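User: Okay, second chain of the day. Same drill as before: sequence in, structure tokens out.
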Amino acid sequence: MSTTVHTPAATRPPMDPMRRRSLAAGILYLITFVSIPTLALYKPVKDQVGDFVLGAGSDTGVMWAALSEVVVGLAGIGTAIVLFPVLKRQSETPALGFVAARIVEATLIFVGVVSILSIVTLRNDVAGTAGADPATLVTTAQTHLATYNWTFLLSQSLMPVFCDLFLGYLLYRSGLVPRILPIIALVGAPLLLASDIAVFFGVYANISPFALLAALPVAAFEFSLGVYLIVKGFRPSPILAGPIPAIDRNPELAPA
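Assistant: Same drill. Structure tokens below.
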């Protein structure tokens, strides 16, 4: 008579809470880059808004671009929420500043998206109807486009300056990532701010080569940070030695 002994199946050890947090932050940072194609997808609106609102071309690409910007806004808020419990251990005031800057950035992004979607609504629901005045439609569309252009400057160009100044300072002081990354942020943010001021006063357009060049260090910092957090996670730091929040230790404790 043989006896079969059943051994419990091997289970994967749970991921370290801080590693889980760094992985989530890295993924969210990379998601914020999904809006890169919007420059091309919005081209029919930005180049010929009058023709577009009167029915020329397709609005499919514009709708996808608007959706991608909504995703970017939500992902941006997510980066701040995920990192806040760690960053506040270094200094709570700039950590709160980072969260606030992300929320303002996302709010302004949504305002810009609403402006673009309003142009699409004018095109689909008003243009071509009885009594619609083409000249009035074009003027209204131009107004919405101007609103988008200004909110783009304030949201996706100016607010990253403050986000990266707060985050760069916290990462540099804490040593959570290699020092070269926050240094790029702390150098790139003032450069982008100077460019934003130039755009604000009409020195050059916000999609000119000068503006794109000024935005490269900030973009390089955020992309590199996302990749590093996914691949490596946080580096050993004194601020990680504190107690882990209960929800991080046991996600089942999170409210439903």
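The first helix runs from residue 17 to 31.

User: Thanks, on to the next one.
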